[in-house]
Amino acid sequence: MQIPPQLLAQIDEAISHYPVSKRSASLPLLHLFQEHFGYISEEASAWIAEKLELQPIHILELVTFYPMFRRKPPGKHHIRVCKTLSCALAGAEGLKAKLCEATGIKCSGHSHGDPVTVSPDGKFSIESVECLASCGSGPVMMVNDDFYEAVTADEISQILSQYK
Amino acid sequence: MPAPARRIPHPREKRIVFANIDREGYTPDIDCYLRNGGYEDLKKAVKMAPADIVAEVKTSALRGRGGAGFPCGVKWGFIRPGETKPIYLICNADESEPGTFKDRYIIHQDPHQLIEGMIISSFALNVHLAYLYIRGEFPLGAKLLEQAIAEAKAKGFLGKNILGTGFDLEIYVHRGAGAYICGEETGLIESLEGKRAYPRIKPPYFPAVLGLYQCPTIVNNVETLCHVKHIVRMGGAEFAKIGTPNNTGTRIVGVSGDVVRPGYFEIEVGSLTLGELINDLCGGMKPGRKLKAIIPGGSSAKVFRADERFKIKTKAVDGSMLEKEISVLDIPMDFDTMAACGSMAGSGGVIVMDDTRDMVETLNNLNQFYAHESCGQCTPCREGALWMRKITDRMLEGGGVESDPALLASVSNNIAGKTICAFGEACSWPTMSFVAKFPEEFAALAKKTVPAFTPPEFLSATLTGGSH
């Protein structure tokens, strides 16, 4: 695992935001690692723990608690589809089925502990997530950090084509 | 990223916090904010005594906009005078109650309003370090807020010696990571300390006594902190004239589900009824459909059935109490009447369902949410939320049994009030109310329509034809 100097600088900056307790920087560091590496490896957990003078379990217990952190690499582009009530009423299930079809991902096979499914070519991954707080414009989804609302079936191919 | 859809405010709205939302040409940068009178309220605030700002907030009778509706000034008053420990302010921007979508627009379109509200509140409470806890799924929002903080710092509204007053304040953005429970203020504090977001045992009931790093801490919702800025501008007494007594100010309600025009509206509290909200502001139900059910204040609020009627007490002009019967659509959008009708105004998220919706399926969606989001600390909630989900799952799959509705009611009744935090109530109220109000739909699915699973070795073909 190579930590580039730029990431290291971001890490030190994040830690400086918590003058009272370095442990508070756990979540920010996990975000930085996931943004850079795509997921949180055992090695990454251990590195963060050492950096913050914690035991590795203090980081691992966060990775297993907070749904956003992944322990396996996702696809090159990660899709999150909201499945909660307002989006469900607006047709979230159909949207997800269409996304699975368009990306070649088998829609089944999701489980609580391993909610991310990757397409055979590794280009996309899909995850059903709970409420993304845009209930008035459902169904909503995110591709990486980009947010899309009131997504219709016709728009899917156009949206996905932006992600090479 | 596509440009967000812009909406024109409805004539019945009264926009204060949302004044700049969806305004043509309004941008989230500080120059635009300053052109529109930004940070003038901060300049006014720093000339006031901090105790006077707290007094104005108390006079305003502002109630917290996060869901519990607790009076903000009372919460602030829990900070002991002459406190020697550092005091922290945390902005709860973990907006994640299903049906709620208001903070998103403040954060993305008008971040400086929130930052100004936080600076004024910090000045009033003698806070020198504040955190803005934003949900992890708002990556752009976090960037915009960080940018807003940097801009405010460059202009001297933040950092050392703010506006030459000698008052210092740092605000940092802290991103959550997808856990609903972080909206519970003590869970949020644990999360900010770098731990699992396990809500803390009460008492102490308020983090104002023991909060972040065991120091006095005030946790306020985004919308609440924005209101503080406007209270400083117009004065607490003036603010209290908006809305009705004990239900003051405006609040942002979000309507989603089966209406023609779902969306967000900033309304004077109590100024219109649930029916007017749905029929006038949202254009009514979709063509040919009839109203069936309404969840009035975020997914945790108890559901209303369209034909329900309530007896409520109102004060007559001469001060005597009048009892009158009202329908669901007559309920005013305020805190107190909503509670008197057995539900809550909660976080302002109204979810509307029409006659095509299956109530067991609807409840199952919510049960999935709560089973997923229980932090797992208290047994009744951890086991109960999952159990309720399993029951509605099997009812939908054709594996229900006659006792299921009663079992759902029993499980839900054994969670509420038996847990460390209000998630217990939040996860049980939907089940409790759905089962009680739509008994016929639950009864219809409380029977097996598919045969029970039989292990292959017990199938009759195997038994007769085998070597037994």
User: What is the CATH C level class of the largest domain in chain B, in words?
Assistant: Alpha Beta
Unreliable spans of chain B are none
Indicate the structural class of chain A: alpha+beta
Mean of residue pLDDT values of chain A = 94
Shape category of chain A: elongated
| Total individual domains of chain B | 3
Oligomer state equals: heterodimer
Describe the sheet with the most strands of chain B. Answer: 5 strands, mixed
CATH topology-level name of the largest domain in chain B: Rossmann fold
Task: Based on the model shown, name its key terms.
heterodimer, A: 164 residues, alpha+beta, Glutaredoxin, 5-stranded mixed sheet, 12% strand, B: 468 residues, alpha/beta, Rossmann fold, 4-stranded parallel sheet, 13 strands
How does this model look, in words?
- The complex is a heterodimer of chains A (164) and B (468).
- Chain A is an alpha+beta fold and 164 residues long.
- Chain A folds into two domains: 5-63; 77-161, Glutaredoxin, CATH 3.40.30.
- Chain A has seven helices and five strands.
- In chain A, strands 2-3-1-4-5 form a five-stranded mixed beta sheet, covered by helices on one side.
- In chain A, α3 packs across α4 (56-63).
- Chain B has 468 residues and is an alpha/beta fold.
- Chain B has three domains: 30-241, Rossmann fold (3-Layer(aba) Sandwich); 249-354, Roll (Ubiquitin-like (UB roll)); 359-444, de novo design (two linked rop proteins) (Up-down Bundle).
- Chain B has helices spanning 30-35, 40-45, 50-60, 72-77, 103-109, 111-125, 139-154, 185-192, 222-234, 236-240, 274-281, 336-340, 359-373, 379-396, 404-413, 423-437, 439-444, 460-465; strands at residues 88-93, 129-134, 170-175, 217-221, 243-244, 247-248, 250-257, 263-268, 291-295, 304-305, 309-315, 321-327, 349-354.
- In chain B, the strands form four sheets. In chain B, strands 8-7-13-9-10 form a five-stranded mixed beta sheet, with helices on one face. Chain B has a four-stranded parallel beta sheet with strand order 3-2-1-4, with helices on both faces.
- The longest helix of chain B is centred in the C-terminal third of the chain and has 18 residues, at 379-396.
- Chain B is globular, with a radius of gyration of 24 Å.
- The termini of chain B are far apart.
- In chain B, 54% of the residues are buried.
- The model of chain B has no long low-confidence stretch (mean pLDDT 94).
- At the A-B interface, α2, α4, α5 and β5 of A face β3, β7, β13 and α13 of B.
